[in-house]
Amino acid sequence: MLAQVGKPAPDFKLPSTKGATGASDLGKELSLADFKGKWLIFFFYPLDFTFVCPTEITALSDRLDEFTAIGAEIVGASTDSVHSHWAWLNTPKEKNGIAGTKYPLAADFTKETARAYGVLDEASGVAQRGLFIIDPEGVLKYAVVTDDNVGRSVDETIRVLQALQTGGLCPANWKPGSALLTKG
């Protein structure tokens, strides 16, 4: 099943860095079912130890409290191994690392999940930069894929999440506290 807005999000079961305290306890599996009842920001990035990716990963981590305050969790994923993720998580930011990241990274080493979400570049075997917002019932509500050279906006991700959470009609440039549109 290919990801489609308004339809159930493709399920996934991926090894991750969740709860790991060392290389010996890596690989706790994450699945879509783990997030039932919560909003999920599920995003793909091309590769560990690259240039734009750490700016996005750390920007989302720096604002994790804002996401959790509105009932959302974050999971990042790439086609790298969980061991590569762990090495990157233990590399200081000043050395292009992402030490201090507060949410798990999942390893889609088989590329099945990136393919299901429509972000796998089949030629390179690397995921494109894709971000998905999944509602508490597991329905895909938002999907965006950008060029690998352009990082995503945390402000816009939060704004879209808040708009989706209203359940109403949100006009262009809507922000929390703004009026919703009415039908008719």
Report on the structure:
23% of the residues lie in helices and 22% in strands. With 184 residues, it is an alpha/beta fold. It has a single domain, classed as Glutaredoxin, CATH 3.40.30.10. A 5-stranded mixed sheet has the order 5-4-3-8-9. It is globular. The model has no long low-confidence stretch (mean pLDDT 96).
Uncertain stretches: none
- CATH topology name, in short, is Glutaredoxin
Work out the count of structural domains: 1
CATH class, anyone? Alpha Beta
Strand content range: 15-25%
Number of strands: 9
What is the H level of CATH, i.e. the homologous superfamily? Answer: Glutaredoxin
Shape: globular
Mean pLDDT equals 96
CATH architecture classification = 3-Layer(aba) Sandwich
Largest sheet: 5 strands, mixed
Radius of gyration: 16 Å
Number of helices: 5
Distance between the termini: 36 Å
- Structural class call reads alpha/beta
Helix content class: 10-25%
Query: Main sheet: which strands, in order across?
Result: 5-4-3-8-9
SSE order: EEEHHEHEHEEEEH
Short description:
This protein has 184 residues and is α/β, with parallel strands linked by helices.
Keywords:
5 helices, five-stranded mixed beta sheet, Glutaredoxin, 184 residues, globular, alpha/beta
